[in-house]
Structure formats: structure tokens, C-alpha cells
Automatic annotation (TrEMBL):
Residues 118-216 form the Fibronectin type-III domain. This is Fibronectin type III domain-containing protein. The chain crosses the membrane at residues 679-709. Gene3D superfamilies: Immunoglobulins. It comes from Candidatus Iainarchaeum sp. SMART domains: FN3. InterPro entries: FN3_dom, Fn3_SaeA_2nd, FN3_sf, Ig-like_fold. Pfam families: Fn3_SaeA_3rd (PF25833). Keywords: Membrane, Transmembrane, Transmembrane helix. SUPFAM superfamilies: Fibronectin type III (SSF49265).
Length: 713
């Protein structure tokens, strides 16, 4: 055993000598991330204690791959270094395990305790939009480098950043500029900047710079000219305040600049007149030099076009009295005449009905031609005067008129089609409601009256639209149809209140057909049709609300699966007396034949044309009666499924059913007594009754005798 232990120890020792042992893992609480810069100059290190370690040796320096000597620094596993200079440092440690030193482990760290320099060449510049842009040169940081800048703002020169009134505009500016917005006009703003390096050292504060945002005129100034014969009246009005130190000048064609108002202060209106006698047409320049109440420059110019001669023109398209549809080009020629004409300012097209309606402004397509594409679908059909209003810069205008007819059948056709489409959707809802009412045997007078009117309007509108005649009338009918279908649907409400559903299994139902008295030669066909047509019976209780109030009706629906070819059938329904006492209690929108008033009825139908046949109970239930009817589960009262036979079968009350009466279906008394065994049972019953009667008489007599004997004693 000892030999084995010594052998294993020798093998481990030999492996350590040959291959070496991994050193301990190192960490730092002061510089936890080797990739980041820290301003702490006294780094602290910790390392793991390996199993069997008896000593540690470590070293801190600026060499990456240094291996500590083999002189023990003790058994402790932490070290706090004295202050170190800025730069990249490396800590190395190794442990002694089993008398052998491990390989060295290494840990790198970055130290930067030196703050960056303060930013230089700081400038504050007002911008044209009333803001202030502060900019500076990039600050220098030797070790980690600048990370971001902090910008301070105050309202006094050489302010202290620790002053409570100082505002930090931003503490994380990556670039070297910042724009402050929403400033107060006329106020002075002071700024200082500092840099922050990647070790979070705060740099020096820059010198203070200041400026004011640009000040703008606070007034809204307008010019109003008015020409009367040869006198031009001009007024200048200020909104938002008064004018200060205002000088007003005018320059007319052929004359020098002339002052017409001088050094006017505290005025919001300046009015003057200019004599234009002998002045040729041309541009008249008005210049106002003025300030507002905070000495902002409010100078402004206005040009009046003196043009005594109006423009002229002519239509190029469309021709007179043309019938227009879809998109047409409106095009005119327009020129401005006279000496120094002001020129064509705009050409506007309008169509004149009760009032003028603007079509739009034309685009100049050549020196003298102006054009606009008019989508006539935007105008009602009819006859109009289309106007081209030509305006020059002198305020003169001329109107050119052209008669046209707009006949956009496409627009009207689209409108009618849209209304018929909407009416069709409402029609579908009304038809569905109609089917439900008819299935329930209800002929609601108001609903069917409105529906008839709606159908009539719908048919007329559709016919006129198809022939594309009297389209205005078709539009009225289409609108009436839509509204009437909506009105019909709102006049009555049908809500399914309860639903009882049964699907029949042919194999199990064949015997039921026999029990019902169906001739044996027809049982197979009836069972086969039951399967092939997926015949089912559903009893619905519907809640009806109309102008007369609320009531409930029971509807029986016999349904079939869809088929793709004509399949005429005869359906015989044997109705329990607990559901309907007599055939007169049954109503249906489909004609039926009464075979037996018990009742037994027959329908003729083509399964391809309709996938169900319905009939209803004539009785109108109250809510309580409807609940009781549903809870009784009337489906269970039906002794036989619907009997579905082909149209070739000879079906009548005498052939389809053998003794199809109450005695056969419900086990009547006459059939019971037709059996000889039944008389034996009757006689036995009579004897039993007589015997019981004699026993009772004997007991009664005995009791009486007992009482009399007891009294005598």
C-alpha cells in the first residue's frame, strides 16, 4: 500500500516538473475590468489558494510576461500596492504546491489619475434662427483620452460652476459643439466647458464666453396700396407694436429716390400719397427703415406694379359648346400689354353655376400659354360657363368665358352601381330574414310591405342601369332601395331562442319505419334515402320582435345535404299529437298534402333546389310556454324519422301506410282486444278483483261482530 502511494506521488511530482502547474486565478477589487481605465493609483489584488499551496510569490510591474522569483511572500492571498504612476500595469503571482512552484498567472490593469486639460478656443455664436451655438477645440488627455464634455450655462460673467444658479446644459457631449435653443431675446448667456476622460477624471474648467441670441423684429408690417386715377395712396401698418425712428422712401420710374416720411416714432400707421401724373408704367419701390421698441431692425421693402393696361387673352381649348367627360385640357393664351407691363401673375379656371367654383390655377407651358388638366368627375353633370380669370401683377384682370356641357355618365354609373351594391347587401340580409319568417309561417304585414317596395325600387334601378337610360331616376330608385331594405330589416327581429337537433341512423331507423306502418317494399328506399341525403330533423324555437310585441314560435326543419343534380323527392312527416294535435295546427310556406288529420302530411321538393323543408306550429308561445316546450324535448315524441321517397313512388294515405292510425301508432285499445290471449288476461283480472272484494267484506263483517260482542259484556 505504501509503495503504491509513493509511486503515485512520484508520478505527480514528475508531471509537475515536466509539464508545470497552472497558477492561481487573479482578480482585483479596485480595477475589476482589465479593459477599462481607473483613476485609483493603489491597486488591490486577490487570488485563489490552490489545494496544497504552502507559499506564494508575486510581482507588480509594467512588463507583461514577468515571472515572480521563488522567494515566498507568505501564505496570504491578497496584496495592496503603493501608489503607481499612470499607465498599463501587470500583476504576476505563482504558488508553491507540493514543493514545486506553479506557472505564473498574470493580470493587467490601466491607471489614469491625471485630469484632461481644459478645452481651448471656446466660442459662443448666435445663429440666424435665434439659437446660440457653443463650440471648442478638443481637449488633450495623455493616458486614457477624453470621453465626453460637460457644458455649463449661467447669466453672469466668470461664473462658478458650483453656484446653484448654474445650469448643466448637457453632461454627456461626445462632440465639440452644442446648440442651445428656446432663448430669451436680448438676454446675455455665459458658457463654460470641461472635459472628462475615460477614467472619469474631471478636467479643468474653460474660460467663460458669452453672447446674446440674435434679435428679430417683433412687428408684422403690411403695405396697402390704392390707385385712384393718377394718385397712389400707400399705407404702412405695424401689428404687435409701434414703429420707431421710421423713414419712408419711394422710387417711381424715371425719378430719384424720395423721402416721403421722416423720423416718425411711436406710430403704428403711416399713410402717404404719391402723385403719378406723367409717370410711366413700371415698378414703384417703397422702402421703410424703422426699429421696434427693443431697437431691432424692422426695415422692409414693397414693390407696387404700376400697370394701367389690363391683360388680354383667348381660349385655345376646349372648343365652344363641347360636351366634356373625364379629364380635359383647359388652355388659354394670356399676354400683358402696355408700356412696361407688369406681366401675367396667374390664370385661374372656374366653372360658374350658382356661385363660382374654382377648378384650379393653370401652369405656364410657354411664354404666352397657360394650361390645366380638369377632371370633370369633380363637377356635377350639366351645362356651365367655364371662366379663365387672367390677373397681372398690377392687379388688373380679365375674364374669358366658354360654354361647355359636362356629361359624365361614368360618374353617375359608378354612383348608381355603388348604391345598388350596398342595397344588394341589405337585400341579402332582408331575404334571409324573409326566409326565416316564412319558415316560421309568419307573414308580418309591415315587413313584407316594405320589402315589396324595396324589391320594386331595386328592380327598376337595375333595369335602368343595365340600359343606361334615365340615370338620374335610376339613382333615386337605387337610393330608395337601399333605405327600404334597411327599414325592412329594422321592422322585425328574429332571434334563435332554442335549438333541438337529431341526425338519423338508417340501420336503426328501418325498424321504426316498419313500426310506423310503412309498407315493407318502401322501407328499404326510405332507409337508403335517409343515409344518402343525410336527412336530419331540427326543432327551433325563435323569438320574434315586431311592432306587435314579442312572442315565440316553434319551427321544424327537415334538412338534406347539398346535391349537384335534380333530385325530386316526397317527404312524409308523421307528427306526434303531443307536438300538434291536428293538421290544422301546422303552417308552412311550402304547400303540403294532409294524409291524416292526426296529423300525417306530405311535401314535394327537389333537393337540388332547396336543402331543407320547414313547417311551423301555428301557436304563438309566451316565454314560459316556449321554455316548457323546449324542456319537453319534442324530438323524442317523434316515433319515426322523415319518410323520404323518390318522386316515382306512388305515395298516398292508403299505400304508404298500413293502418296508419292511432291504433297502429300508439297501441290503441281495439288492437289490444283483437288478441285471444288478451281475453284470458281480462278474465283473470276480474276474478282477482272479485276475490279481493270478498276478503274486504269478510273483514268488515268480522270487525262489526267483534264490536257488538264487546259492548254486551
Amino acid at each position: 500500500m505504501v509503495k503504491r502511494f509513493l509511486f503515485a506521488f512520484f508520478v505527480l511530482l514528475l508531471a509537475a516538473v515536466v509539464f508545470g502547474l497552472d497558477g492561481p486565478t487573479i482578480s482585483s477589487s479596485t480595477h475589476p475590468d482589465s479593459g477599462l481605465w481607473y483613476k485609483e493609483t493603489r491597486p488591490a489584488f486577490e487570488w485563489e489558494v490552490l489545494d496544497g499551496a504552502t507559499a506564494h510569490s508575486y510581482a507588480l510591474g509594467m512588463e507583461a510576461e514577468t515571472a515572480p522569483d521563488e522567494i515566498s511572500e507568505g501564505i496570504g492571498n491578497s496584496f495592496r500596492a503603493p501608489p503607481k504612476i499612470d499607465g498599463l500595469w501587470f500583476f504576476h503571482v505563482r504558488s508553491k504546491v507540493g514543493g514545486q512552484w506553479t506557472d505564473a498567472s498574470h493580470y493587467s490593469l490601466k491607471i489614469d489619475h491625471t485630469a484632461p486639460m481644459s478645452p481651448q478656443n471656446v466660442e459662443a455664436t448666435p445663429t440666424d434662427d435665434g439659437n446660440i451655438r457653443v463650440s471648442w477645440d478638443a481637449a488633450f488627455d495623455e493616458s486614457s483620452g477624453v470621453d465626453h464634455y460637460v457644458l455649463f450655462r449661467a447669466f453672469q460673467k466668470d461664473f462658478d460652476i458650483r453656484d446653484p444658479a448654474t445650469v448643466v446644459l448637457s453632461d454627456n457631449i461626445v462632440g465639440t459643439s452644442f446648440v442651445e435653443e428656446e432663448l430669451v431675446e436680448g438676454r446675455t448667456y455665459h458658457y463654460r466647458v470641461r472635459a472628462v476622460d475615460k477614467a472619469d477624471n474631471l478636467g479643468g474648467i474653460s474660460k467663460s464666453v458669452f453672447t446674446k441670441p440674435k434679435s428679430f423684429c417683433d412687428l408684422e408690417i403690411s403695405f396697402t396700396p390704392s390707385l385712384e386715377q393718377e394718385t397712389l395712396s400707400i399705407s404702412v401698418e405695424s401689428q404687435g407694436g409701434e414703429l420707431y425712428h421710421a423713414n419712408f422712401f419711394v422710387t417711381v420710374p424715371g425719378k430719384e429716390r424720395e423721402m416721403i416720411a421722416e423720423n416718425i416714432t411711436y406710430a403704428s400707421l403711416i399713410a402717404r400719397e404719391v402723385d403719378l401724373l406723367g409717370v410711366e408704367d413700371g415698378n414703384i419701390l417703397f422702402e421703410l427703415e424703422a426699429e421696434d421698441n427693443d431697437v431691432d431692425d424692422c426695415s422692409i421693402q414693397f414693390t407696387y406694379f404700376l400697370d394701367r393696361v389690363g391683360p388680354s387673352g383667348g381660349w385655345l381649348s376646349p372648343p365652344e359648346n363641347l360636351k366634356l367627360l373625364d379629364v380635359v385640357e383647359l388652355k388659354v393664351e394670356a399676354v400683358d400689354s402696355g408700356i412696361n407691363p407688369s406681366g401675367i401673375k396667374s390664370v385661374e379656371f372656374l366653372y360658374r353655376e350658382d356661385v363660382d367654383a374654382s377648378i384650379g390655377f393653370a401652369e405656364r407651358v410657354s411664354e404666352r400659354e397657360f394650361s390645366l388638366d380638369w377632371n370633370t368627375l369633380s363637377a356635377p353633370n350639366g351645362r356651365y360657363a367655364v371662366i379663365a380669370r387672367i390677373l397681372d401683377f398690377g392687379g388688373n384682370n380679365v375674364e374669358l368665358s366658354r360654354s361647355v356641357s359636362v356629361e359624365n355618365t361614368a360618374l353617375l354609373l359608378s354612383e348608381i352601381s355603388g348604391l345598388l351594391s350596398q342595397a344588394g347587401e341589405e337585400k341579402s340580409k332582408a331575404e334571409k330574414l324573409k326566409g326565416t319568417l316564412i319558415a316560421a309561417g309568419l307573414q308580418d304585414a309591415e315587413f313584407f310591405s316594405i320589402l315589396g317596395q324595396a324589391d320594386g325600387n331595386y328592380a327598376k334601378a337595375s333595369d335602368l342601369l343595365e340600359r343606361q337610360v334615365f340615370l338620374e331616376t335610376a339613382l333615386v330608385h337605387a337610393l330608395n332601395a337601399k333605405e327600404l331594405f334597411e327599414q325592412a330589416a329594422e321592422s322585425v327581429s328574429v332571434e334563435r331562442y332554442n335549438n333541438l337537433y337529431v341526425v338519423f341512423e338508417p340501420n336503426s331507423e328501418a325498424e321504426a319505419f316498419r313500426e310506423a306502418g310503412l309498407k315493407e317494399e318502401l322501407v328499404g328506399e326510405a332507409a337508403s334515402n335517409l343515409q344518402e341525403l343525410s336527412v336530419s330533423r331540427r326543432i327551433e324555437v325563435n323569438k320574434i320582435s315586431d311592432s306587435n310585441g314579442v312572442f315565440y314560435v316553434a319551427v321544424i326543419l327537415i334538412s338534406f345535404r347539398d346535391v349537384n343534380e335534380s333530385t325530386p323527392v316526397q317527404i312524409v312527416e308523421v307528427i306526434p299529437k303531443t307536438v300538434a294535435a291536428n293538421a290544422s295546427d301546422i303552417i308552412s310556406s311550402t304547400d303540403f298534402e294532409v294524409f291524416n288529420a292526426d296529423p300525417v302530411i306530405k311535401f314535394d321538393a327537389d333537393v337540388m333546389e332547396t336543402n331543407y323543408i320547414s313547417y311551423a306550429l301555428a301557436k304563438r308561445f309566451s316565454k314560459e310556454e316556449a321554455d316548457a316546450f323546449a324542456e319537453s324535448n319534442p324530438n323524442k315524441e317523434f316515433l319515426v324519422p322523415p319518410i323520404v321517397l323518390g318522386s316515382s313512388a306512388s305515395v298516398n294515405s292508403g299505400i304508404i301506410v298500413e293502418r296508419f292510425d292511432t291504433e297502429k301508432l300508439f297501441g290503441g285499445v281495439s288492437s289490444f282486444f283483437s288478441s285471444q290471449d288478451a281475453w284470458v288476461f281480462v278474465l283473470a283480472g276480474v276474478l282477482v278483483v272479485l276475490f279481493l272484494f270478498l276478503v274486504i267484506v269478510v273483514l268488515a263483517v268480522s270487525i262489526i261482530i267483534f264490536i257488538l260482542v264487546k259492548r254486551r259484556r
